[in-house]
Structure formats: structure tokens, C-alpha cells
Amino acid sequence: MATTPRTPARLGGAAAALLLTTAALTSGASAAAADDASAAATVCEPFGTIPMGKYWLNNNVWGQDAGSGSQCVEDLYQSGDTIGWRTEWQWEGEPYEVKSYVSSVLGWHWGWNADNTGLPVPLWTDESLNTTWDYDINTDGPVSVAYDMWVHDVSDPTWQDDPSDEVMVWLSAHHGAGPLGQKVDTVNVGGQQWDLYRGEIRDENGNLLWDVHSFVHTSGTDSYSGDLTAFTDHLANRGELGWNQHLSSVQSGLEVFRGSGSMQTNVYSVTKG
User: Fold this and answer.
1) With contact defined as beta carbons under 8 Å apart, do 176 and 143 qualify?
2) Which residues contact 11 (CB under 8 A, 6 or more apart)?
3) Whole-number Å distance between alpha carbons of 63 and 54
């Protein structure tokens, strides 16, 4: 996989923050979608947001200056802790520069946009963060579909508190998309195989902002269920995270490098307990 350069342009999302399915769930998700169809919203404005209970959708086009194009995000339904949403995009420019990470957000993103998220949680706790994500994607360019989790040294981060670490869980990579940094291992987490990469985000002066740890599914999947704390536990056991750190945010979305396409999240949830 190609190494993906990133720059502190990712912090563009900070400014904004200040301001169908698996077979077993098909009927429930479809009914919820029908019930909420009248309330559906679409946002195409850069860094526009859509509230969805404890989550919110972020039209996060943090890398748009590396090319030209546009992206929109639409909510489909919300039923308790479960949501559905979709996005469409058209981007041109450097194929190894991320243009956007349009996503659902639970918890911190340079501030807080929703209540009752259940986050942050200390890494030493035994509490789980169980997730289910089922999606469909159609793309003609490099894209990754991934969770993005932020880790802080402080227990109650504000918009002023940059993270210490970023933990990405890539469910699939398309048309040559690859993570930041170098591969350090192939590991088993949650009964599945992942290539583990490690990289760094630095500012224009070369100062370290935060470390990036990326788990890339070795075969790719469009449906995942598991405990997200298994990934932070794995890194803590390796000594790459500290047990006294705090998981402050869980996001799910896609990094678009170039091209056009669409992705629909049929079923998505994160529950604590």
C-alpha cells in the first residue's frame, strides 16, 4: 500500500467543531428509515454538521486545499443508538493526499457537539465500546473506510487540547489507498487479522503533534462487529499507549483521496457497557 502523506491541514476540522443492512436488521432499519424520511437532512457546505442524537455527522473536508471538488452528507435514520447515513463525493487532485473524512462523530472533535456520549473513558477501565457497522460503497478512486479514535492525556479535553494519539481501524481500502507511516506488525485483534502501521502528524516546523496507529484489515470487510477497546488495549499492552490515557472520541467515516463515488452506512452503532 502507498504511504499517505498527511499534514496539519487535518486541523481544519477543529475550526468547524468550534463553530441496507445485515439480514437480521433489515426490516427494523428499513422501518426506521421510512419513519424518519421526512426529517432527513443533507449538508454540502464544508464542515457542515447534522445532529443525530448522541452522534453528529461532520462534512469534514479537512484536506480540500490539496485538490478541488465537493462532498455531501445525508442522514437516513436514527433508532435509539443506531443510525444510518450516506455520502457522495467528487474530488480531483493529488492521489495520495486525503481530501476529506466525512464521518459520524461520537464524543470529542476539538470540542463537544452532543451530550450523553459516554466519553471519555480511561483506557484502564473494563468497560467495552461495542460497535456494529454495515455499509455499501461504490468508488472509482482511492478511498479508505475507517474508524478514527482520538486518545488524550487529559480526562476532560476541550477544544484547546490536542490529542496525544490517533487510532484508526481500516475496514477496507480501495484503489491503492494506504495508511500513514510504516507497517510494524500483523496482529490478531477481536479474532481478525490486521496489519498495524505507525506514523506521526507533525506541524510545518517539524514538531510532533500526535502519533497515528492504523489497524488495516488484511482482507477487507464491509460489515464489522466488535469491541473497539480491544484496539486500544492492544496498543497499551505493546507500550504504545498508556493505561492512564483516555479514549475521547469514536468516529466512523471514509478518507477520500481522489475520484467520485458514494457510501451508504446501513447500520451503525456504538454502545458502552
Assistant:
1) no
2) 62, 110
3) 26
CA gap 22, 266 in Å, rounded: 8
Separation between Cα atoms, residue 151 and residue 235, nearest integer Å = 12
pLDDT at 156: 94
* C-alpha distances out from residue 19 to 16, 47, 49, 113, Å: 5, 10, 10, 9
Domains within the chain, CATH numbers bracketed:
8-272 (2.60.120.180)
Is residue 67 a contact partner of residue 93, using CB atoms and an 8 Å limit? yes
Predicted pLDDT at 40: 83
Amino acid identity for residue 40 in this structure: A
Buried b / exposed e over 229-257, threshold 16 CB at 10 Å, is bbbbbbbbeeebbeeebbbbbbbbbbbbb
Residue 273 pLDDT: 84
Q: pTM here?
A: 0.87
The burial of 206, by beta-carbon neighbours within 10 Å (0-12 exposed, 13-18 middle, 19 or more buried), is given as: exposed
Q: Strand locations in the chain, DSSP E?
A: 42-43, 49-52, 55-58, 67-79, 82-93, 100-107, 121-122, 129-139, 143-152, 165-174, 182-189, 192-202, 208-217, 223-227, 246-256, 259-272
Mean pLDDT, consecutive 10-residue segments, the chain of 273 residues? 34 33 36 49 98 98 97 98 98 94 98 94 96 98 98 96 97 97 98 98 96 98 98 98 98 98 98 91
What is the C-alpha R_g of the chain?
17
Q: Are 44 and 61 in contact (CB under 8 A)?
A: no
